[in-house]
Amino acid sequence: MRAAMTRRCLSLWLGIVLMAIAALARPVLTQAQEEGKGNELTRKARIKVAPDYPDIARRMSITGIVKLAVVVAPNGTVKNAKVVGGHPLLVNAAINAIQQWKFEPAPTESRGTVEFKFQPQNETEK
Predict the structure, then answer these.
(1) Where in the chain are the domains?
(2) In sequence order, which ranges of the chain are alpha helices (DSSP H)?
C-alpha cells in the first residue's frame, strides 16, 4: 500500500512539474510568435535531418507540431532558428534537427517557417 502511495505522489509531482514548465514556456512562445511571423521557407533543402523523438515525450504519448522561424545564410546553413510554437518537450529536438539542415545557396539570406510533426510510429513500423 505504501508503494502505491509513493507512485501516486511521484505521478502527481511529475504532473505539477510538467504543468509548471508549460506555464513558464507559454509567454516565451507568444513572444516568439510575434517575431517569427512569415511564410513557409521557399528555399529548397538539400539535406534534411529528421528530429529524434524524445523518449520522455514518447512515454507520455506527447504528439504535435513544432513550428520554427528560420533564417538561412546565403551559403545554405541555418543561421538562426526561433520557436514559434510547439510542446516544450519537443522543441529541442526540432531545433537540433533544423540546425543540421543544408539549403541551396542563394545571393541573400532567406527567412521563413519550418514545421516538424511529432507522432510515435507503430511498433511494427520500427
Answers:
(1) 2-125
(2) 2-35, 55-59, 88-98
Q: Output the CATH code of domain 2-125.
A: 3.30.2420.10
Here the cell at position 59 is 512515454
* 66 and 87 Cβ atoms separated by less than 8 Å: yes
Cα–Cα distance between 119 and 64 in angstroms, integer? 7
pLDDT, tens digit, 9 for 90 and up, residues 26-78:
444 443 333 444 567 888 999 999 999 999 999 999 999 999 999 999 999 99
Cβ-Cβ contacts under 8 Å for 5 (sequence gap 6 or more) = none
Q: How far apart are CA 81 and CA 115, in angstroms?
A: 12
Q: What is the pTM of this model?
A: 0.67
Helix then strand count (H, E) for the chain reads 3, 5
Rounded CA gap, 43 and 74, in Å?
A: 11
In the predicted model, is pLDDT for residue 79 greater than 60?
yes
